[in-house]
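Mods, move this if it's the wrong board.
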Amino acid sequence: MTLAATAPHGFLSPTGVEIAFVLVGLVTLGAAVITVTTRQLVHAALWLVVALGGLAVEYLLLTAEFIAWVQVLIYVGSVVVLLLFGLMLTRAPIGRSPDADSGNRWVALAVAGTAAVALVWVVVDAFRTTWIDLDGPVQGSTEVTGEMLFRNWVLPFEALSVLLLAALVGAIVLSRKDDPDTPTGPTDGGTR
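Not the wrong board. Structure tokens:
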């Protein structure tokens, strides 16, 4: 056996999984940027499917299969379908929507940049001294994830489900309002 075959890989010699992770990450980032910059609402929802699907693939590459399937079932399957139903029920325009751009791009970009910096700072500060126990159960396993989920995160998930239900009911209520142009009387066309 040669020395090159036994040497651990470094930053300049990535494995196939690491290359796939970076490529899928770039596709996911591109889909997310297109999601928030397109002026067609239906296209934005479809690009959101690509971005969320890319995240599921990233979870699979990190060997967190349970989280990947939760991502597919809940976000791609439920949230995007709910979003598309909301678009259909509220009679959103199918083509380009000129009112989808408020003209506050630079303010939105500044707020998004500030939020991103704050989020990265909080995450780095929170996990700076955290170490993963490699002898314990796998961190992405169903056992560990289910234990954390049902011990610490049950209330936020239930609150999110109520919020999604309220959004769907609101979309239905908005779509059922009577048009002032339509007659409310009998529509048989005859006189009595």
